[in-house]
Amino acid sequence: xxxxxxxxxLLLVQLCCASFFLFDILSSVLGLRRAPIPxxxxxxxxxxAALGLVLGVAVTATLLYRSLTAQQRAExxxxxxxxxxxxxxxxxxxxxxxTPAERxxxxxxxxxxxxxxxxxxxSTSEGTVKAQTNAIYRKAGVTGRSQLLxxxxxxxxxxxxxxxxxxxxxx
Length: 171
Hints:
This protein is mainly alpha-helical. It is built from seven helices and no strands. It has helices at about 1-30, 40-95, 100-110, 115-120, 125-140, 145-155, 160-165. The protein is rod-shaped and about 90 Å long. The model has no long low-confidence stretch (mean pLDDT about 85).
């Protein structure tokens, strides 16, 4: 929240500085009269406006760097979480002693494909896929797809996996 406030204040300063220079140029070009101010004060205003713009560029560059660094860290965490999910998934499918066909069906079911879509992709009947999913649920000790998926989500949310992702001690 502090960063947002600072960003908007900086944006306001930059807008005022740019407006000053734009008004100065337009008043000269259009021949608008303005009340005379002492030359030294005018120079100080110009220096202040220029410093405001330079400060804006410096802070914007810093904020951009922070943003890109945060994005890179988030992408790395996502990659680690994806790898951890696949690791947990592979371990569970192995623990349940699924056949290769059941393993394929389980992966497709976890991805969210319907029975008809799985059957079409595997060139089998929906009845075969339904029998395979029932065998998967029985071996996993669950009653349906949502419980199957929640097994993996619960495991990923386990402290051991979170510690491993954070670089701490694992299991």
